[in-house]
């Protein structure tokens, strides 16, 4: 088939897809064999549509085409066979064995025999090689990962996995151009032609039935051959050659720009076209050639209406309209708007920027004001990956950057962005640095490049393809725009010319010309080619302050949105050919406190976050189309972002979270994803490759072809083993697979089944590792994970800090903390220890305290002496302050400003201290004993404190006023006033508050300071509570007890799910004193992982088994309440012959 015929098939595929002829699209893909739709193939595999899977594959390859094809078909048929066995459908399994798998027996007879023997087993998992086989969804997912690798490696699929980049409705555009040419050739063109068919060429007849003479000076025929014939055709037959560009948007902008702009004009460069124009003049062209007929606009599949274009001719000429039936414009646009709140997620800190993945429509990248990025799968509400800011390589840090970090360690994310293929993502930080990660899917996020890009803040980031090379474009406070090689990080261009910090960049291309628009905070807009000749445009944006620019999805229309210093917001469309504002949209709030954010979608909609809502405009109408509040709770200027298809819209909320709004297509997308979502831990999203066993008589199930397979004519030799029966399953690392999954119906037992508390009595029933320690043992009262989740930091009672880091390995490719591998006790090359000031105090008797900055760069701690600030990379003391008395007993960083620290003191006061200016801003009094807990809430704007007096106090963070206070309620049989440490921790919603005391766990509504639920030890839990904490997703509570045991509770109901006996994690013998957890810490992104700091100086990391993936199952509500108190005995009376039975209570 000729090249043009192949391209025509692609145009038809695009047309069918736009018109929603889904079945026909995939039928044509299969029959033509030009484009393999991996997304459609994945959907069919996940849904188990095996007949359609093989039918679709048959258009591209056959079983015996080559070794890759044979592996593909074998894996599919093997999975189909195992699923039939799993359903106990023996007849179906036999049919698959005989009809589908028999073909492989000639290649590996032993493998086929072993597959056959599975029929004799009651459960095929009894076979050793298939013992790791999970449920159907997980097996399909793992197999699909293997299939994708095989397809990508198969030469028969080369150049068939990527759809060519086409502008929207390309076939319609070509038809429009044809109609215009036909109309221009009419001898007597009518001013308002009625084109009713495409089946024959258009021709306007004269009113008398003959053709009228051609006007000698008519603009419609100027430049055409004087004979009525068509212009000469190109070598490709009916496809007309493109006219050379003759005008430019930038040329127009320059004509209207400030004449005093000190920038060099563009020098004309070489071009393949006749009479080569200046490269700058190719940046934009008028929509129609001069002295020619105005263009027909065929109806767009996106907008469903005819868009009218400007006419270059001075004489009024009626436009040709191809008449088709269309839906009312407004109704169609309203249906396209995502307005249903489909998901609500909590990020945990204020979101600054968001970006959907360009290919995976439900993957959202988020950046926050504490230097943290997260990747969310919004369909399942799952956080796939999370990273906090830290310097990867100290050698890239310039002196100005180091000085900036020391002066103010707070770092926020200004911009996150995906590369066009979604394989890379960029992060622009407020301090000098750009981080580039490689993204391999799921939670697999790997460091790629670290660039010290700008002096000061990096304000914006974008990917571009100049000269077919992927580049990163950054701009910053140093008034420059820089272009970097995305593979090596080498700087390629440095654009200077702005006189104020550069706020945003917008790369684009027209024809073969690549260029960049940039905006600065003085309102100046400039445009740059990838050369050293300076900017081509110097123009003023409305509002003369912060402005961002963006093109419509098809790249034909340019918009900008911004806010003035006075709070006036502007959304405009630009006339690129003239460099002037074409349209100004109305409907903004009079005074906006922040810079408004906007986005475009589907070539027809504009959206802006303004006035605590989202406002939508039709691109062709200056008035607001509709306003959506998204169930309320939005900030004054919410940040918004569409996915590529425009079916989902992410919007930030006041409570440090975001919502996903969806239209009908978006709801179908989310539901479809849920039905096929892999219901397992995130670590299984990307199986870890392990070396396959050599084929042999005892392990035929693991026979895997290797790259050394003999191939003749790209076909597999018949004697070659085919593929492992269990290869995709066993590719999962046996060491550990972890990450959270959404809670669902499997969290409760079947109705009517008697519930029993899961009890772990042996180390083989969970994953556990005791961290290696070569330093003197001393009890561990303080323990925290780094925010990145790759290390554990302990503060021992002898005032020495210990840091354990996990190393990247085959069993732990992410280098995250895990119970599957042991970490290393880390020290800098200097060998120094982080040791707190102890002055004249005995650290063993002091109350230690510790707090870690959000970017893991600094740790602040004290052990009865001065508070020390350490550099986590060098272990050096950066400063000390607050000498005792009184000594500090608790530390907490302000969540929005790392320079502000709340310090609980031994004398019962709380001091609000500003590190930068070394000044106590406020001193809070309200407790009677030392402070034992502090917790901030961004949502409520409060600080909650707890003390050894058993009192809770709520302080407003605006003026540090005391709002409420209350003593915790003690269980019956206890002293009326509770004593001992009381600790507090906020739920992720920043409203519910976990209160921990020796006698109880309690949940409070912090807004009212009212207890809504509590749990107290009862006969099965006779010991007091030593410490407790929420899991990272706030779905569980991990609690340690004085008898050495650990229990896991459902956070919503405070019902126990699992109990781990002390013998599991505490070495037996050799300890005269009882050993128990002094502190318990939860991993920041692994919901089922926690670490224990023990009284014998040990640190233990614990996780459930891979096969379990979670800690037990909570009791169903049908089981009723837990045992109720019947006696006045307290839980501490552990020696009582009749231990007290206390209750879970809900008020």
Largest sheet: 5 strands, mixed
Number of strands: 62
Helix content: 10-25%
**Which class best fits the helix and strand makeup?**
alpha+beta
What does this structure look like?
- 14% of the residues lie in helices and 30% in strands.
- By secondary structure, it is an alpha+beta fold.
- Helix 2 crosses helix 4, helix 5 (67-86) runs antiparallel to helix 6 and helix 5 (67-86) packs antiparallel against helix 8.
- The radius of gyration is 34 Å and the shape is globular.
- The termini are far apart.
- Residues 207-249, 251-328, 678-753 and 1118-1147 have low confidence and may be disordered.
Summary of the model, kept short:
The protein is α+β, with helices and mostly antiparallel strands.
Describe the structure using short key phrases:
1147 residues; five-stranded antiparallel beta sheet; 15 helices
List the helices and strands and how they pair.
Blueprint: H1 3-18, H2 22-32, H3 38-46, H4 50-58, H5 67-86, H6 90-101, H7 109-117, H8 136-153, H9 170-184, E1 194-195, H10 249-256, E2 321-322, H11 329-336, E3 340-346, E4 351-356, E5 363-368, E6 372-377, E7 382-388, H12 399-407, E8 413-418, E9 424-429, E10 433-439, E11 445-452, E12 458-464, E13 471-476, E14 480-485, E15 491-496, E16 502-510, E17 513-520, E18 524-529, E19 537-540, E20 546-551, E21 558-563, E22 569-575, E23 580-585, E24 597-601, E25 605-610, E26 613-618, E27 624-628, E28 640-642, E29 648-652, E30 657-662, H13 664-676, E31 711-712, E32 715-716, H14 727-730, E33 758-760, E34 766-770, E35 782-785, E36 791-795, E37 801-805, E38 824-826, E39 849-852, E40 858-862, E41 867-871, E42 877-881, E43 888-894, E44 897-905, E45 910-914, E46 919-924, E47 931-937, E48 942-947, E49 951-956, E50 962-967, E51 982-986, E52 992-997, E53 1000-1005, E54 1010-1015, E55 1025-1030, E56 1036-1041, E57 1046-1050, E58 1055-1060, H15 1062-1065, E59 1077-1082, E60 1090-1094, E61 1099-1104, E62 1145-1146
Parallel strand pairs: 1-2, 33-58
Antiparallel strand pairs: 3-30, 4-5, 5-6, 6-7, 8-9, 9-10, 10-11, 12-13, 13-14, 14-15, 16-17, 17-18, 18-19, 20-21, 21-22, 22-23, 24-25, 25-26, 26-27, 28-29, 29-30, 31-32, 34-61, 35-36, 36-37, 37-38, 39-40, 40-41, 41-42, 43-44, 44-45, 45-46, 47-48, 48-49, 49-50, 51-52, 52-53, 53-54, 54-62, 55-56, ...
Helix pairs in contact: 1-2, 2-4, 3-8, 5-6, 5-8
